[in-house]
Write a structure and sequence with these properties.
It is a single chain. By secondary structure, the protein is α+β, with helices and mostly antiparallel strands. The chain folds into 2 domains: 150 residues, Roll (Thiol Ester Dehydrase, Chain A), CATH 3.10.129; 115 residues, Roll (Thiol Ester Dehydrase, Chain A), CATH 3.10.129.10. 16% of the residues lie in helices and 31% in strands. The chain contains 7 helices and 10 strands. It has a 10-stranded antiparallel β-sheet with strand order 1-3-4-5-2-7-10-9-8-6. Strand 3 and strand 4 form a beta hairpin. The N and C termini lie far apart (43 Å).
Length: 297
């Protein structure tokens, strides 16, 4: 396996048409914990077809077609113009680094779209230190208009030393140094990962205790993209009065895993239409999401 630079910047995924419906929208909302109280009519709007609303971060799974977070990461196929070499990284050594969803228009409850992905950056941290790959996936609707742009970075721990640039990677968003303007506590269920995986990402790291132990964890961990969705849920709850159409973009940097059943505290800072946030687990004293930014329309 090897990364060839700059050839990797020519790698793209083939255009793929997909359709999702209200069941997919509701399953995602349930997967990030909305609707836990069936008498909460505000949250019911995300999990019941009457007046259904779509969580903006659902874009990370709705195009997956059974691939879960891979649609969000925009993993490029090794299809290249003649004369270019196909890069192949060691996916056993890969972790999700950052994720951003930008919505050019609010997501409908159902629709047919086309997704195309490409690699837009490759940064070399050095031999034995890994590489950072930045991929982009763009959705267009049946009119050819842009609906969403998903940008994700992958830290390929086993693929450093390929001779690419060492600098130039975009700087993460800096959250304010003042105390948070408000904080939101969101509980996760012990079976949260078992439900969320039905959105498409069936990596056994999130469901199989023995597999998780072999990977160095005491028990299965929550999907990073589930935690990502939970931070969007916190913004919806605390800032937009559960109006998803107010959210233009939502981005994070993943810093530590969450174990299903833990309480996630999301700290938020508001500066105009920019909402900065970080997420932490009080009981373990660990920050699980850093450099978060939601931009409102």
């Amino acid at each position: 396996m090897a990364i060839y630079y700059p050839d990797i910047l020519q790698q793209r995924t083939a255009a793929r048409t997909f359709t999702y419906g209200d069941k997919d929208v509701m399953l995602y909302a349930l997967g990030i914990g909305l609707g836990a109280d069936p008498m909460n009519e505000t949250e019911l709007a995300f999990v019941y077809e009457r007046g259904l609303k779509v969580v903006p971060t659902a874009a990370t799974v709705l195009a997956a077609g059974g691939g879960g977070g891979r649609a969000a990461e925009g993993r490029p196929a090794p299809d290249l113009p003649p004369g270019h070499r196909a890069s192949q990284i060691n996916f056993l050594m890969v972790v999700h680094g950052e994720q951003k969803v930008e919505l050019h228009k609010p997501l409908p409850t159902t629709g047919t779209f086309t997704a195309e992905g490409r690699t837009i950056g490759a940064f070399d941290k050095g031999e034995g230190k890994g590489a950072v790959l930045v991929n982009e996936t763009i959705w267009t609707d049946e009119k050819g208009e842009k609906v969403a742009t998903l940008t994700g970075s992958t830290f390929a721990r086993g693929d450093g030393g390929f001779g690419g640039p060492t600098e130039g990677q975009p700087e993460p968003h800096a959250v304010p140094t003042r105390a948070p303007d408000l904080s939101v506590d969101i509980s996760t269920r012990p079976d949260q990962a078992l439900l969320y995986r039905l959105n498409g990402d069936r990596n056994p790291l999130h469901s199989d205790p023995e597999f998780a132990k072999r990977a160095g964890f005491p028990r299965p961990i929550l999907h990073g993209l589930c935690t990502y969705g939970i931070t969007c849920r916190a913004v919806l709850q605390a800032i937009t009065d559960y109006d998803p159409d107010q959210i233009l973009s939502h981005q994070v940097r993943f810093s530590s895993p969450v174990f299903p059943g833990e309480l996630i505290t999301v700290d938020l800072w508001r500066d105009g239409n920019a909402i900065s946030f970080e997420a932490r687990i009080k009981d373990r004293g660990v920050t699980v999401i850093k450099n978060g930014l939601t931009v409102l329309r």
